[in-house]
Amino acid sequence: MTSQTPDQTVLVVGANRGIGYGFVQQLLPQASQIYATYRQIASPELTELAAQSPQLHLLPMDITDEAQISSGLAQIRRQVERLHLVIYCVGFLHEGEIQPEKSLQQIQPAHLLRYFEVNSIGAVLLAKHLIPLLKHPERSVLACISAKIGSITDNQSGGWYGYRASKAALNMLMRTAALEYSRKSPKTIVAMLHPGTTDTRLSAPFQRGLLPDKLFSVERTVQQLLAVMDGLQPEQSGEFFTWDGSPLPF
Ligand SMILES: NC(=O)c1ccc[n+]([C@@H]2O[C@H](COP(=O)([O-])OP(=O)(O)OC[C@H]3O[C@@H](n4cnc5c(N)ncnc54)[C@H](OP(=O)(O)O)[C@@H]3O)[C@@H](O)[C@H]2O)c1
């Protein structure tokens, strides 16, 4: 989506805070309709933005519940025929007692499953149900916010087993989905994007020692990722990119 293209419809999944909320803020002036999802209770800032913006629609969607994904998308289909941009911003690194593992001794199967459920499976379930909204003659983009740490080739430092593996799985699931989309919805470009370390609740406990130029504001990350999405070419579908548009190895 570019600022020159009117009547663009957008879905931001995981829009309650952080990078997802930043996408909603920046896309509002350009989009004709924006659908924004939250897990349980819409945050005060998202609620406030929706109250001021008739084109912004809020939907509950816990990504671990397929029925909520399908009913949320059915609600969108009752209002619009097509989506042009879908951004999957859901993800977690720490949640309650789940913390990134520093060693094998900290591996817990239930925690690994939770990482996969939220960070990987949610995205492919979304891709499963999105085809009717993305399959149309205009260009569309399905972007998933991944993480460089999910690159198997790039893994030189170890640790964070569950988060790493769930992002590697996200990349594999969405690359596979990209191949199926190329047949079933050929105008859709599927991409996995590394945002760079960004100042959100997710990164907050791990920011100590980072040089200021290595920590992006949400606003900067969103601007950079929108520029990458704008420049994506059909033959790049299924690829993994960092925030400046350079390709990352799987
Ligand atoms: N921040 C970074 O430095 C960084 C670096 C690399 C990659 N990333 C990736 O960027 C994406 C966005 O992260 P962020 O930094 O913006 O983190 P954040 O501020 O913690 O936001 C996480 C989002 O995920 C949603 N979410 C979590 N579990 C969910 C579930 N079960 N169902 C539906 N939504 C759920 C949250 O929704 P609720 O608020 O409704 O719970 C929230 O909107 C993630 O995929 C993350 O892995 C971030």
UniProtKB/TrEMBL annotation:
GO molecular function per UniProt: oxidoreductase activity
GO annotation, cellular component aspect: cytoplasm
InterPro entries xref list: Fungal_SecMetab_SDRs (IPR051468), NAD(P)-bd_dom_sf (IPR036291), SDR_fam (IPR002347)
Any Pfam family: adh_short
This protein's name: SDR family NAD(P)-dependent oxidoreductase
